[in-house]
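[PROTEIN RECORD]
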Amino acid sequence: MNENLPVHVATSLSDVGTITYANEVIAIIAGMAASEIDGVAEMGGAASIVDILGRGRKPVTKGVKVEVGSEEASVDLVLTVEYGKPIHKVCRDVQESVRKSIETMTGLHVVKVDVHVQGVSFEREAQEQAEGMQRAKMAQMPLVDPEPAARPEP
């Protein structure tokens, strides 16, 4: 069930009309802004059966919950931080990026961005170690065959 769908926001533009934002729009903006920050390994909580059976595609709103009023919005984010990154800095960068993105794109005032760190990811470190080992193996392999194979004559 997606908590971000049911509410819409209408912003009055004097006599011109109104602009309406679905919660899903605000959640997408927040999710994109947060996932672009260096140090954010992944968004959302533990994988559900739907995520596991899904086609490996993670929605950008995973781990994002928004509450939107007529002129204000608040955001809750659940994320995993990469090992070795300063968690407090990553979280502050996420908060600032989310706030700026929503305010710039919608004109809504963001009253709070709460970040819940659910874990630390070691995937990047493990991937870098594996790549280092692969490079070491490649360095040990000869680049050119010292004895070219004999070609049969026609």
About this structure: Residues 87-106 form the longest helix (20 residues). The CA atoms of residues 10 and 20 lie 4 Å apart. The chain has a mean pLDDT of 81.
